[in-house]
Amino acid sequence: MKREKLRAHAPLEEPPAPTDLRVRQLRARDLLRGDLEGPDLERHVEESLLMTTMHKATGWGRANSIFPATFGLACCAIEMMSIVGPRYDIARFGAENLRASPRQADLLILSGRVAVKMAPVVRRLYDQMLEPKWVISMGACSSSGGMFSNYAVVQGADKFMPVDVHVPGCPPRPEALMYGINKLQRMILGRPDPGWRQRYNAYGTEEWAREATGDATREEIEAYAAARELAANHEATRSVATRGSRS
Amino acid sequence: MPDAPGLELIAQELNGAAEGSVLGTYHEHGQGCLIVNPERILDVLGWLRDTPGQEYRFLSSLHGVDYLPAEPRFGVVYELLNMPRVERLRVRAALADPGGEELPELDSCVSLFAGAEFHEREVYDFFGILFRGHPDMRRILMPEEYVGWPQRRDFPIGGEPVIFTRNEPEMPRWYE
């Protein structure tokens, strides 16, 4: 009884019969020969096409072929180096090819503390990278200054450049960095993880959800409004997508 | 190392060779130190380097110190080494703070020990002590446009205060 209920809600798809596969093979062969015509051709095209948006397709491609820059700042770089090795093997997620030039890279991993003398250099490297580009701030030092709460170290790399993902730890284990890269992949795909907001059910506290306060400039008001609009569109498409998969 | 009487002998001979150069001595943890008049620092280092029987020909380190409440405020410390006898001698030039925006000045010893060049730049970088006659008096570690002398005791430590929920209730505003 219970099983039938489930089936009624989400009907299980029957696995294709072996004869079906054979039919499809023959049809593909006919297509290559140029013999396929009429409703058969239409059916073949319908079965072998995948409809998506350009945005999603490029996002899928970008997320699964991230090219990080070979750029180590401090001790975190040792952990960063190990993720490309066979033990951790970031190649499973398509990001194993560390490029030696910022022109060829699209991910900058800030692996270590950024000294005030290094900050302009890092910023120049970031500016030299081609769009689209992302930044992971790895470890406590590049995220907040960490233990180096002093005159020589920048207190958080997002003071001089945008950062997409902060990976906590001192240093983070390679698994943590890989998890950060996975999160970044989901951001690139346009489905960022809600993170702690999911756990504490704290949606709507995002920065872009804020109303501009009284002394805000016109640009700020417009930026907040645009961000809210974008997010609303995103939510709408996502709920449509989830509803679609359920029915 | 020269022992305490040996240190006194060196001080006497130095005062004979260059009048009023040694202001004091102390001997601690098996190491002797000469406190010298900063105006005569080149005479002292040259004498220690070239006099037969002394021959401290290697400057193993040069560093600055800030003794803030004390007067004179700054010290520049020279660690000399005699390689054949493996003897070390410390020479400290006591420098007063001229006050205001002015920087304390001292003769550069690059003419005697070429390796002192980067050491003196580092002392200048962190303590703001100018070395007269240095070939290239610039900052060495901090960015060139940096303002202030960060290892001085009256320089703010920097960074940002971090409030932990653990200690905020029992020690309100503890970070100040």
Structural notes for this entry:
The complex is a heterodimer of chains A (247) and B (176). With 247 residues, chain A is mainly alpha-helical. Chain A folds into three domains: 2-49, no CATH class; 61-193, Rossmann fold (3-Layer(aba) Sandwich); 207-246. Chain A is built from ten helices and three strands, in the order αααααβαβαβααα. Chain A has helices at 2-9, 18-33, 38-48, 54-63, 76-82, 119-128, 139-144, 174-188, 196-200, 218-246; strands spanning 107-111, 134-138, 165-167. Chain A has a three-stranded parallel β-sheet with strand order 1-2-3. Chain B is α/β, with parallel strands linked by helices. Chain B contains three helices and seven strands. Chain B has helices at residues 4-17, 41-50, 116-127, and strands at residues 22-28, 31-36, 58-66, 74-82, 87-95, 105-107, 130-132. A five-stranded mixed β-sheet of chain B has the order 1-2-5-4-3. The longest helix of chain B is centred in the N-terminal third of the chain and has 14 residues, at 4-17. The mean pLDDT of chain B is 88.
> What count of structural domains of chain B?
1
What would you call the shape of chain B? elongated
**Largest sheet: spatial strand order of chain A:** 1-2-3
User: What's the CATH topology name of chain B?
Assistant: Beta Polymerase, domain 2
Number of strands of chain A: 3
Please identify the structural class of chain B as seen in this structure: alpha/beta
**Helix-and-strand structural type of chain A:** mainly alpha
User: Which two chains have the most extensive interface, and how many residues on each?
Assistant: A-B, 10 and 13 residues
Q: Which sheet architecture does the biggest sheet of chain A show?
A: 3 strands, parallel
The gist of it:
Chain A has 247 residues and is mainly α.
Task: Give the SSE map.
The complex is a heterodimer of chains A (247) and B (176).
Chain A: H1 2-9, H2 18-33, H3 38-48, H4 54-63, H5 76-82, E1 107-111, H6 119-128, E2 134-138, H7 139-144, E3 165-167, H8 174-188, H9 196-200, H10 218-246
Parallel strand pairs in A: 1-2, 2-3
Chain B: H1 4-17, E1 22-28, E2 31-36, H2 41-50, E3 58-66, E4 74-82, E5 87-95, E6 105-107, H3 116-127, E7 130-132
Parallel strand pairs in B: 2-5, 6-7
Antiparallel strand pairs in B: 1-2, 3-4, 4-5
